[in-house]
Design brief:
about 450 residues; binds pyridoxal-5'-phosphate; 14 strands; alpha/beta; seven-stranded mixed sheet; single chain
């Protein structure tokens, strides 16, 4: 029997004031005076000021409690403020919190990661603080090992906002920020709902990958150090490619004598119902980048690879791969607690079972609602594609998406429904009763939107 989660179950929203309430409003105004622009969209739109949170429930300073299916965009694996996580960092903070000397918790953390690594060969870890930082380090590592300098990434791919990662970002986010790092090649992802070749799976025979292969060969100088890929794409809309996709990417990497870098920032640690995104197809990456729910909310990330790759120089020289905060005692305690809770409470399995339950309920939306074009998911990684028209698949207007966001907010549900690729990733501790409440709110809002959309 699965050990009972220490997080609360059957959580429900409760609104005391209109949202945002007056206390939130006042504090947001005060913050706005000193805070630079560019905060995450949903935080700006919601306008709430959070005072505390537990499990999947977030309470603001006005006493309103919201169900949270944003989950820090994949950070909130354990649920907000899991008691074991709180205890681990509190105790560690009392002992030692700064520096890169070896600590007992870091030794423990490395052992824990080794136990759950995608393959036995991936047995060396370096630690960082943000996803982008880990990705940059993985790119440097691939260059050192292969002695080559070009990289391949995918349309829709997101690997962070630092210069190397940005150059490999498959979206218009880079507009106005050029020039990019030379030798960055971006090829189509197997995004079947919006097939880059307008074909249908499986009769397409994965033609997008033939195109990718040809494009890499023709646009590169043949010096590909690595192919970086999200096994399932998060930022692009929680997209799940067909099972053939990753093995073909690996095949292309081998043909080019390049390393396969699996960016598991979002898909790692059970989010998709197995420990890793690559586990769904038994694809063996050469380098894995970790982050988000790795630290249970503490900023921890990492690069995992094999001994022979990691001793490449200069990456492997003293101070060659280090950083100020990487693997510090507090970060190590947080990540160690996070992995232990994931294992003890069998959260990977919970993600699979409750995720399938959630998905099944949402799949009915495709038939019921005129603006729901696609519903997909693996574990607690779910995407709803909202469209103006099911034939043209044109994305639902920003105005209607915003309306959905606010209608949910005003019923106590925090969502990412402000864009047409509505992404859902609650804490992996979520239970079926809480999912029922979430679905009930979504259904109420969708019924209302559908009426107007059909007019
Ligand atoms: C797949 C992936 N890689 C890297 C990153 C960058 O992580 P961070 O925001 O911690 O720099 C993200 C962030 O969303 C991500 O989704």
């Amino acid at each position: 029997m699965r050990k009972q989660s220490k997080q609360p179950t059957n959580q429900k929203p409760f609104l005391k004031t209109k949202v945002p309430g007056s206390l939130s409003h006042k504090l947001r105004e005060q913050e706005e005076i000193n805070l630079a622009p560019g905060l995450q969209n949903f935080a700006l739109m919601a306008g709430i000021v959070v005072s505390e949170a537990r499990g999947n429930l977030v309470t603001d300073v006005d006493g309103n409690s919201f169900l949270d299916i944003i989950g820090g965009i994949g950070v909130n694996g354990l649920g907000h403020s899991h008691p074991d996580f709180v205890q681990a960092i509190t105790e560690q903070a009392k002992k030692v919190s700064v520096g890169s000397f070896t600590s007992q918790v870091r030794v423990d953390l490395l052992e824990e990661v080794k136990k759950v690594a995608p393959t036995k060969d991936l047995n060396k870890l370096q630690l960082y603080s943000s996803g982008a930082e880990a990705v940059e380090s993985a790119l440097r590592l691939a260059k050192c090992y292969t002695q080559k300098s070009e990289f391949v990434s995918f349309w829709g791919g997101f690997h962070g906002k630092t210069m190397g990662a940005l150059s490999l970002m498959g979206s218009e986010f880079k507009n106005g920020l050029g020039p990019m790092v030379p030798g960055s090649h971006i090829v189509p992802y197997a995004y079947c709902y919006r097939c880059p070749l307008k074909l249908k799976y499986p009769s397409c025979g994965m033609a997008c990958m033939d195109l990718a292969r040809k494009q890499i060969k023709q646009s590169s100088t043949g010096k590909i150090a690595g192919i970086i890929v999200e096994p399932m794409q998060g930022t692009a809309g929680n997209i799940i490619p067909p099972k053939e996709f990753l093995p073909i990417v690996k095949e292309i990497a081998r043909e080019m004598d390049a390393l396969l870098i699996s960016d598991e920032m979002i898909t790692g640690f059970g989010r998709t119902g197995l420990m890793w995104g690559v586990s769904h197809t038994n694809t063996e990456p050469d380098i894995v980048t970790l982050g988000k729910q790795f630290g249970g909310g503490f900023p921890v990330s990492g690069v995992l690879s094999t001994e022979s790759i990691m001793k490449s120089l200069p990456w492997g020289n003293p101070s060659g791969s280090s950083s100020s905060y990487g693997g510090n005692p507090l970060a190590s305690a947080a990540a160690c607690a996070s992995i232990r809770v994931i294992n003890e409470e069998e959260l990977v399995n919970n993600s699979k079972i409750v995720g399938a339950y959630f998905l099944e309920k949402l799949l009915s939306f495709k038939e019921k609602f005129s603006f729901v074009g696609d519903v997909r998911g693996l574990g607690l990684f779910i995407g709803i594609e909202m469209v103006e028209n099911k034939e043209s698949c044109a994305p639902l207007s920003k105005k209607t998406c915003s309306r959905i966001f606010y209608e949910c907010l005003n019923r106590g549900l925090l969502t990412m429904a402000y864009t047409s690729c509505f992404r859902i990733q609650p804490a992996m501790t979520i239970d079926k009763l809480t999912v029922d409440t979430v679905v009930q709110i979504l259904e109420e809002v969708f019924v209302m939107i559908d009426k107007d959309h059909r007019k």
